[in-house]
Amino acid sequence: MTSAPGGRTTETAPPPADRVDGQLLRIAFILVLGTFMATLDATIVSVGIDRLTEEFDASVADIQWVSTAYLLAVVAAVPASGWLADRFGGRRTWLAAVGVFLLGSVLCALAWSAASLIVFRVVQGLGGGLLPATGQALLARVAGRNRTG
């Protein structure tokens, strides 16, 4: 209820139940951004193969392991995401995944050789592998059963 001029009160209608509120949109944006970054990192090395072979004086086959290591780590992390979320909570797991992904990204930027870059991409992939599944589960929980079908 709100007060109108002249002392009258007017009834304000509650928002429709099927309307998506701003908080849900903000949460969805953040969760999707994490998934986007992890997915982007799966293919980002492809555009820099020539530069990486020059920078690290490595063969193309060695540099291809940079992408392969990331993808193998993602594949290893995805099944663990459900167990980790059940054990530690979805929010905590997602935040830890962002932290591991960020740490791996910083270490990749500081890599001094192809071998170190490969190891750091594994760290990055472990965090990146947790982001999509955990993010989807969090989004489904926040959205509620009536929106997830």
Question: What do you see in this structure?
Answer:
This protein has helices at residues 22-43, 49-55, 60-88, 90-109, 114-143, 145-148; strands at residues 2-3, 9-10. With 149 residues, the protein is mainly α. The protein has one domain (21-148): Growth Hormone, Chain: A (Up-down Bundle), CATH 1.20.1250.20. Strands 1-2 form a two-stranded antiparallel ribbon. A hairpin with a 5-residue loop joins strand 1 and strand 2 (9-10). It is elongated, with a radius of gyration of 22 Å. The model has no long low-confidence stretch (mean pLDDT 88).
Quick tags:
149 residues; mainly alpha; Growth Hormone, Chain: A; 6 helices; 3% strand
Count of β-strands = 2
CATH topology: Growth Hormone, Chain: A
What is the highest CATH level, the class?
Mainly Alpha
Order of helices and strands: EEHHHHHH
Mean pLDDT: 88
Structural domain count: 1
> Which class do the helix and strand fractions yield?
mainly alpha
What strand order characterises the main sheet?
A: 1-2
What's the helix and strand layout?
Layout (H helix, E strand, L loop, with lengths): L1 E2 L5 E2 L11 H22 L5 H7 L4 H29 L1 H20 L4 H30 L1 H4 L1
Antiparallel strand pairs: 1-2
How do you describe this structure in short?
With 149 residues, the protein is mostly helical. Helices cover 75% and strands 3% of the residues.
